[in-house]
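Review form for a predicted model. The reviewer records the input and the model, then writes brief findings.
Reviewer: anonymous (R2)
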Amino acid sequence: MAIESIGRLIIYIGVVMVLVGGFFILVAKVPWFGRLPGDIIYRREGLTIYFPIATMILVSLILTLLLNVVWRR
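Model under review:
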């Protein structure tokens, strides 16, 4: 019985990884994603620090809406 639950867990993890990979493939095709007006880029000679504040807020809002729709009972 424990082996069955481990197998199911591995399958669920695989499905989630496929969905996340598909998400990254789609996001790479959107030219403005990661370059929103609230994102901060600090560049100095030999150093670049990137703070994607606006992008993470947008991702958080989208995921919140999707998860509320999916898990609503």
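Findings: The two ends are 29 Å apart (CA to CA).
Further findings: The chain has two domains: 1-30, 31-73.
Recommendation: see findings above.
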